[in-house]
Amino acid sequence: MNIPFAQLIQTLPDTVPFVGPETIERQLGKRFVARIGANESAFGISEYARDAIKEAASERGCSWYGDPENYELRSLLASEHQVAMNNVCVDAGIDSLIGLTIRLFIEPGMSVVSSLGAYPTVNYHVNGFGGQIHSVPYKDNHEDPVALLESAHANNARLIYLANPDNPMGTCLAPDAIAQLLNGLPDNCLLMLDEAYIEFMDKTPALSIDINDPRLLRFRTFSKAYGMAGLRIGYVLAHQDIIAGFNKIRNHFGVNRLAQLAATASIKDTAFIERIKQEVEFGRQRIYALADSLARNYVPSATNFVAVNIGDEEQANALIATLAQKGIFARKPAISPQSQYIRVGVGTHEEHELLVKTLPELLGL
Ligand SMILES: Cc1ncc(COP(=O)(O)O)c(C=O)c1O
């Protein structure tokens, strides 16, 4: 049928950036027993958050729209990061904020630089707004700030996207490397720094916040350490003039009320986040030990997952498919040479035990 889509939409492929575990379950006709493929938290939400949701759900909390200003949450976030409230914009997760950022800065034909095989939602939104993605390879399993910068200069880019820590390899860059990238940016080029996994960066310090630098946007989420991926809530920290731009285009009732209440409550639960960091560190060590026992090397991780080297791309692809048959949902990097790895998420004790039982046999050990 001849549907009168806008011209740009007519040019877009039928892209589905992620095949969700539910889709695979429907294809396989059974439920996964272990869900360790989407970098979700295995440890649930804070009790404070659970109580806030329960209370709201039992009264009229679900019938009311959320606060369009996200006032209380922004106020807490501002004091946590020692910035002003007008340096914070809350939205339905980083994915949504990435879309808004592309819409804010990219006109059709403009360039955005990212890494080959990096978090794909960026490419999805760049294509969706008619921009042009330029991707540079990883270097030694790290996103490569020097190559990102060179490409930004060569392609007159408006935005560079960098996830630190990175998905899918779990590596992170030291603050100096990011500061150098920032200082080398071409005129009118901004850095989108995706810090979805920042709470898990235990050894490398994070870049300190200079909120008055108008070249830097820092994206944070409640999906990972706070365990709220299904609630959809995250935020961006940036110069107040950039946040004013977000306020012109964001969906003002797009953050659901329960997510607002849960995020606000869980920030107050500092013991919770400390426990989660410890759980994740323990989980990573367990995955390292498993990789060692399988004689496979791994990439030390600053996230809640570990890239384990299977040694061959085809074998790694086959392994993911067989794991799914055995009830284990995992994912892997798509682009060579990282494609010879599988990405093993920190799971519950039971999920990990299933992996320990299943993997040796599948690897012929
Ligand atoms: C690097 C990175 N950024 C963002 C996200 C998604 O964040 P959110 O759930 O806040 O949209 C993910 C999820 O896996 C991720 O790996």
Describe what this molecule looks like in 3D.
The protein is an alpha/beta fold and 365 residues long. The chain has 2 domains: 18-43 and 271-362, Aspartate Aminotransferase, domain 1 (Alpha-Beta Complex), CATH 3.90.1150; 47-268, 3-Layer(aba) Sandwich (Aspartate Aminotransferase, domain 2), CATH 3.40.640. The chain has 13 helices and 12 strands. The chain has helices at residues 7-11, 21-28, 47-58, 71-81, 94-105, 121-128, 145-154, 175-183, 240-249, 257-268, 270-293, 313-325, 349-362, and strands spanning 34-35, 88-91, 111-115, 132-136, 159-163, 190-194, 216-221, 234-237, 298-299, 305-309, 328-329, 341-345. β5 (159-163), α8 (175-183) and β6 (190-194) form a beta-alpha-beta unit. The mean pLDDT is 96.
In short:
The chain has helices at 7-11, 21-28, 47-58, 71-81, 94-105, 121-128, 145-154, 175-183, 240-249, 257-268, 270-293, 313-325, 349-362, and strands at 34-35, 88-91, 111-115, 132-136, 159-163, 190-194, 216-221, 234-237, 298-299, 305-309, 328-329, 341-345. With 365 residues, it is of the alpha/beta class.
Question: Which features does this protein show?
Answer:
365 residues, alpha/beta, Aspartate Aminotransferase, domain 1, Aspartate Aminotransferase, domain 2, 2 domains, three-stranded antiparallel beta sheet, 13 helices, 41% helix
